[in-house]
């Protein structure tokens, strides 16, 4: 049995992943804002430190897998909170738990990014400088400059940055013997999706975002790819992003990959 920690374990893709991992015989440490094995608010530095300390205590400093799934959608106010959970809630757990993962058995980590990570380039990501500097307090000011589109910008900018953060860690993590990848889901039937459909500011754009396969994903379809990436079958997959999006990235950017 292996020990795997997972954030966002209470709902949607995280809940489907935790269920599939438990069914496969893994010991899961679920982290969420409430009703989890470990309750922590990943939108704050204290909550993130509490999550890292709580996982280390529960796994005795040896962790085999990590899935970072917790996230907030475009409609959440204030939008700086989206960035705090989606970006800082991922990178601070990656960095805090690498020493424990490096002692694990065939260890691997997966961060749930989004197809939205490819909606802008790192060079055009106005959040890039403050996120690389770890300056969470400066995020709200940068988002203000995006005006009415700040929800979209907070979401896509934080997802772009978290994918870049994973890719930039490929060398150090590879040397530590820990594989690290992202999955980039497209539209997936979860409470996060429903909340954006229920918000008149975003519902049309979300409805119009239709994949070539002509439907949205079930959370279990994203969980299946996460389980593959954690498994030894993906033993040479490292620093990669897997789009699980029904073909929408290929449709939007056929010449870029
Ligand atoms: P969801 O709302 O069903 O689940 C998200 C989970 O994150 C919830 O359990 C929630 O409580 C937790 N969370 C939120 N804020 C938190 C905080 N401050 N501290 C601790 N936990 C917190 O959403 P989902 O669709 O399953 O999203 C999972 C991941 O997939 C997110 O990172 C999301 O951005 C990404 N994603 C989702 C879609 C989609 O269409 N649903 C598409 C692309 C990417």
Describe the structure.
45% of the residues lie in helices and 13% in strands. With 257 residues, the chain is an alpha/beta fold. It has a single domain, classed as NAD(P)-binding Rossmann-like Domain (Rossmann fold). The longest helix has 23 residues. It is globular, with a radius of gyration of 17 Å.
Strand arrangement in the largest pleated sheet: 3-2-1-4-5-6-7
Approximately how much beta-strand content do the residues carry?
5-15%
| Largest sheet composition | 7 strands, parallel
CATH class call? Alpha Beta
**Total count of domains:** 1
In CATH, the topology is named: Rossmann fold
Fraction in helix: 40-55%
Question: Strand-and-helix sequence, N→C?
Answer: EHEEHEHEHHHHEHHHEH
Superfamily at the CATH H level? NAD(P)-binding Rossmann-like Domain
Number of distinct helices:
11
CATH architecture field: 3-Layer(aba) Sandwich
Strand element count: 7
Question: Averaged pLDDT, please?
Answer: 97
Low-confidence stretches: none
Apparent shape: globular
- Structural class estimated from helices and strands: alpha/beta
Bound heterogens, unique: nicotinamide-adenine-dinucleotide
In whole angstroms, the N-to-C terminal distance is 36 Å
Rg, alpha carbons: 17 Å
